[in-house]
Specification:
Structural class: alpha/beta
Helix content: 25-40%
Mean pLDDT: 95
Strand content: 5-15%
Number of domains: 1
Low-confidence stretches: none
Number of strands: 10
CATH class: Alpha Beta
CATH architecture: Alpha-Beta Barrel
Strand order of the largest sheet: 3-2-1-10
Radius of gyration: 17 Å
Shape: globular
Distance between the termini: 27 Å
Oligomer: single chain
């Protein structure tokens, strides 16, 4: 049976991060789904959430979910200033840990933007005390793809563990089939097939966003996103929750941070 972890990229596409914004309401909708499905998830949280809705972080952690980090303001690593990244990430990590009383050991790059051009971030994450990253998309069909990267968990030279986005082959393409547009657009039967065919050494996880669950919001372009992509993402909201529920029914796995020891038993 497949073991699939649920991960959520907790961000506000309006970039306002208001205390009662739609991203807060939809995050609570995801918490309800997790409770109904007896799931604990990993929430990769934007640093600005701690400024706008600190109680939301506390609520997530109190329900037994893992709080991980998703950068301060969702700037892709390929566009980030390394010094600013280190400074903001340290402040945010400390704030998250103070709010929740739990260590923050996981990181996910915005848009999976850990690429050959942004590998400086690996050393930065190690210096900041992160134990794992979930930031690589080993595919040739994305602007931020890293097609030569490993598909199974691996360690960078500094010891940081990388948990790559699950992908499957479709002819010459590598498809990130367990999350985002790909999950919502592809037939569920194909997704099930790829899950069954996955390498036993892979760590499978799906990802979603609070806005994916917002079926009543009127269409608007998302920041830094082409109009046609924004439209597809908006239309996908009609099926997102149903698809996520069906994928999660394939097999239960704990938050990503709790799976590290099973991958590398020598790690304490």
């Amino acid at each position: 049976m497949a073991s699939i972890s649920l991960t959520i990229d907790l961000e506000d596409p309006t970039e306002r991060y208001e205390p009662d914004g739609r991203y807060v309401v939809m995050t609570r909708r995801i918490l309800e789904l997790c409770e109904a499905m007896h799931r604990r998830a990993t929430f990769f949280v934007i640093g600005r959430v701690a400024e706008g809705a600190p109680r939301l972080l506390q609520e997530i952690a109190a329900k037994g979910h893992e709080i991980a980090y998703h950068s301060h303001a969702h700037v892709p690593l390929t566009e980030e200033d390394p010094a600013r990244f280190r400074r903001e990430s340290k402040i945010d990590k400390d704030k998250f840990e103070q709010l929740t009383g739990k260590p923050v050991i996981g990181f996910r790059a915005p848009r999976f933007s850990l690429t050959p051009e942004s590998l400086w971030a690996v050393d930065a994450l190690g210096e900041l005390g992160f134990r794992y990253s979930s930031s690589i998309m080993p595919t040739n069909i994305s602007l931020f793809g890293f097609p030569d990267a490993s598909r199974i968990p691996c360690q960078w030279p500094n010891g940081l563990i990388e948990l790559p986005l699950p992908v499957a082959d479709l002819g010459p393409l590598q498809v990130p089939y367990l999350g985002g547009i790909y999950l919502y657009a592809l037939p569920l039967a194909l997704t099930r097939h790829w899950v069954r065919q996955a390498d036993a050494k892979e760590i499978l996880w799906t990802y979603t966003h609070p806005y994916d669950f917002d079926r009543t919001e009127k269409f608007k372009s998302m920041p830094h996103t082409p109009e046609w992509v924004s439209l597809i993402l908006w239309l996908s909201r009609r099926v997102a929750e149903k698809k996520i529920r069906k994928v999660l029914s394939l097999g239960n796995a704990p938050p990503l941070g709790e799976r590290l020891h099973s991958i590398f038993p020598e790690i304490s």
